[in-house]
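Everyone, describe these structure tokens:
***
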Amino acid sequence: MGDAGTPGDAPSTAATAIGESGTPTAGERMRRRVYLLALLVGVPAVFATWAVRGETDAFIGVLYLPFGALLTLLGLGMLTRRLSVARAERVALVTVSAFVLAQVAWLVHTAPDLASAQLALSESSFLNVVILFLFSFLALETRDGVRLSTAIYAALTVIIGSRVLPEVLAGAPVTGLLGFVRALVALGAILLLLRGLAHLKDQLAASEDDAQRLEGLAHTDALTGLPNRRALQAALTERLSGEDDCSVIVIDVDHFKLVNDAHGHEVGDAVLRAVGTALEQETRRGDLVGRWGGEEFLVLASGGADAAQRLAGRAREALARLHHPVVGRVTASFGVATQRGAESPHELLSRADRAVYEAKAAGRNRVAKAA
């Protein structure tokens, strides 16, 4: 029944957590790979089109080269990770939107008449706009997606209207206007549909967030912010069914009833919060610490009996260093038990509880190992 921990099994540090916080998520890594693959195929195609058709098509000759250069820079920025996925998506959306709108403006305003303009605006031109709408809602937040896609639609309407309306007002047949109107109405309907779907997606995401928040509250101790008894019971059952060794450490704050009686529950709550913080700082990756109830805490420790014993020793020393401005020194008694065979959670915890009683009977502020 020792009460001192030996070095080793160092707890995870705040520096480690900070270092990992900037790590890209799996979704971001996947999107980066998809975009780089698309650029790997698309950029050579743009330059090849410019090389083959640049001399015969003025639009291709003027814009395809700078467009390809911008896409190349975008790809290099993503490849070297100088450009985040989110920023790359915004740059790509603005660049491609400007390119598509410039192409539509060129086709509409260089056509000799309205019939030729309708013919020049093939289905692929409007399909490009639909793809831009989709990408806007997928890559951006709903509000930004609505703004960008609405701006694209408004610009498209102005481009077409600036060519069609003057000719119709000058006496051109109204039938020349109908094809453009049908296309704009169809695009507007698609935009409204996508906007509705995006809002529905946001509502579903908000509902899922609420459900996760409620789930978290149901498994979190309101006072300390640590996992509560329900969460600890579920985690213990899961660990005992696994192949790795599982140990439990029951921690009982010494003389806590006297603290409440002498100083009130507000001071007692502050002591419990301080104890919870100290225990959490001493745990290692793979350990789980929570509030078991009242003045009791529980640690689910990984790594076998010896590692759990060392962890309990370090935690005891950490608590012994606590000094509350009202209460003074804070100590606790520890009971350590390691799973035996097919032992149930109740049996394992009962042995740890008996070890805590042994620690208290031996004078408190010490670690006892279950028999």
Summary: The CA atoms of residues 160 and 239 lie 66 Å apart. Residues 175-218 form the longest helix (44 residues). The chain has a mean pLDDT of 86. The beta strands are 246-253, 288-293, 296-302, 323-324, 328-329, 332-338, 367-369.
